[in-house]
Amino acid sequence: MNLRNFFLAAGIAAVAVPVWGQKAPEPYGLTPSARQVEWYNREMIAFFHFGINTFEEYVNEGDGRAPAAIFNPTALDCGQWMRTLQTAGIPSAIITAKHADGFCLWPSKYTDYGVKNSAWKNGKGDVVREFVDACEEYGIKAGIYLGPHDRHEHLSPLYTTEKYKQYYGHQLEELMGDYGKVWETWWDGAGADELTTPVYTHWYKIVREKQPDCVIFGTKNSYPFADVRWMGNESGKAGDPCWSTTDSVCVRDEWKNYEGLNEGVKGGDAYIPAETDVSIRPSWFYHAEEDSRVKSVKELWDIYCTSVGHNSVLLLNFPPDRRGLIHPTDSLHAALLKQGLDETFGNNLLAKAKVKATNGRGGKFR
After folding, report:
1. What's 21-47 look like in SS3?
2. Per-residue pLDDT for 318 more than 90?
3. Where does residue 150 rank: exposed (0-12), middle (13-18), buried (19+ CB within 10 A)?
4. Beta-bridge partner residues of 336
5. Which one, of 56, 68, 79, lies nearest residue 108 by Cα?
6. Using one digit for the tens of pLDDT, what is the confidence trace for 84-99?
7. Exposure pattern of 66-100 as b/e (b: 16+ CB <10 Å)?
8. CB 327: neighbour CB atoms within 10 A?
9. 81 and 135 in contact (C-beta within 8 Å)?
10. How high is the mean pLDDT of the chain?
11. Are 253 and 214 in contact (CB under 8 A)?
12. CA distance 210 to 262
């Protein structure tokens, strides 16, 4: 039993075995939803940052001006991504369907800035479709990052927040309604300050209607709808302690409340556990010059211990290269991490343990 499971258990009312026909005691304090429990049990999730930034020279935050035609992976194989995850023991994955540059990895009906105007497959391809189909084939739970901030859309002279609310909502309906089961949607806070809570309310209703079991990663003004929170940095270090509860204001005003994100708030007003996002490389998108700077197995081990081991779920980024493949070094290091975890935690020392309590709840439960 690792530390993450210990803290999860601490956040849930103990399952009591009633004797003498007594009614079980009521849960105490805030408890997780079924969505949150499912998310906790994943332990690790893969992030795939892939898009038009991959085909620019050392760009991680595109400005929306790069021509769509440059997107042209030569050997895209989402099945190879999933095999990497299977070897690494990672049961879930999230793809950047649209990053802040606004380039869409699916043929959205609401913009020309995407794969349908790229050189790849003569504009007939759909990366999101290939991703979710590969997830289903390999038994991986699919998630989608649809970046709330869109620098390409901002370039339009017709841009207004209200029009963008509708535009993004249409795209969200496409992704939530046309691509099967979606287990997580990721609302990045970067660049999204102008998007008020009423805007997110419109989008939240779409997610809940189309994907009732989908976990929402929320930040800033999407805080009322957050199932999970950012933990305040991108270096893989959750707080110690890292409470599952926090105060809602910490999610809303994240830059002013780092401690409330990183460590949570004991007895806080909301049950919003932390997700720890970090890239296996220095950058979020692939750059060949970083092939020698992939995090070592020891570094990944330390990140696991300071994320999963601190009551968080680890979101580990694997950026596909310009071929559309995960680099073999990234895959190898993730597999070796899994080997180390199996060797260390494979034998559950509590599996046959007998637990005794000196004082049961109400004297009626054991």
Report:
1. CCCCCCCCCCCCCHHHHHHHHHCEEEE
2. yes
3. buried
4. none
5. 68
6. 999 999 999 999 999 9
7. bebeebbbeebbbebbbebbeebebbbbbbbbbbb
8. 21
9. no
10. 93
11. no
12. 31
What residue type is assigned to position 238 of the chain? A
**DSSP category for residue 247:** -
Query: Residue 232 to residues 5, 189, 235, 312: CA-CA distances in angstroms?
Result: 22, 11, 9, 12
Mean pLDDT of 187-203: 95
Residue-wise pLDDT tens digits, 264-311: 999 999 999 999 999 999 999 999 999 999 999 999 999 999 999 999
pLDDT confidence tier of residue 357, bands split at 50, 70 and 90: confident
Chain length of the chain? 366
Burial per residue of 244-275, b for 16 or more beta-carbon CB atoms within 10 angstroms, e otherwise: bbbbbbbbbebeebeebbbbbbeebebbbbbb
Lookup result for tokens 């020698």: 292
On whether the CB atoms of residues 104 and 59 are closer than 8 A, the answer is no
Q: Which of 151, 56, 141, 136 is nearest to 98 (CA)?
A: 151
Strand pairing category for 245-246 and 270-271: antiparallel
Query: What whole-number distance in Å separates Cα of residue 218 and Cα of residue 196?
Result: 13
Check if the beta carbon of residue 105 is closer than 8 Å to that of residue 98.
yes
Give the separation between CA 153 and CA 158, rounded to whole angstroms.
9
Inter-residue contact 74 to 320 (CB < 8 Å):
no
Angle at 11 between CA 240 and CA 184, to 5 degrees: 85
What span, in angstroms and rounded, lies between the C-alpha atoms of 274 and 101? 26
Sign of the alpha-carbon torsion through 337, 342, 343, 349: positive
Q: What is the Cα–Cα distance from 29 to 42, expressed in whole angstroms?
A: 24
Q: Between these two residues, 95 and 4, which has the higher pLDDT value? A: 95
Q: Is the model's pTM score more than 0.85?
A: yes
CA-based nearest residue to 173, from 211, 217, 199, 135: 211
